Predict the structure of Chemotaxis protein CheW.
Amino acid sequence: MNAPRQDLRVRHTRLQDYQAMLARRLREARSLPAVDSYLGLQVGARHWLLPLAQTGEVIEMRQPARVPLTQPWYTGLVSARGNLLGVIDFGLFCGEGVTPLQPGSKIVVLSREVERACGILATRVMGLRHAGELSPPPGGTGSGACREWEGASLVDREGRGWQVLDVRRLLDTPAFLQAGRRPA
């Protein structure tokens, strides 16, 4: 009769220890600063980090329908969940040439707001990246952005360079908003 009571006490003690450990971890987690998360993607030869809070969904690659009298970097329109979505060749927009596509290439939707959303071609989506895994480049501050929509330059643990894309600023940039071109 004594053995079952002792088992019950041991279980009760273990449960109390577990609850105390869980409460401690929750307190520690609340005291830590929020960790920034990014979606990592490759556009041509460059690696970009899109803040998750500013990024919509990733959709399968499909051929956009061309739109006449648009900039060369405006590849056309696709239907995404019943909405028309303008698709941008971001490599071409950045002046780095046509974005090479391969099996597995995707369209990454910028902005969670339907009215402002557009998609960019991604050669490859490279998954989530967290601020704790990234650091400024050696010998630099990591803020060498040359365009107003380029955020910090960072390096991952493998030494791969990343550029943060400030989606809100990009979507407000006059050159980006001017997808149409005047007829010759």
Q: What stands out?
A: Residues 1-32 form one domain. Residues 2-31 form the longest helix (30 residues). The two ends are 97 Å apart (CA to CA).
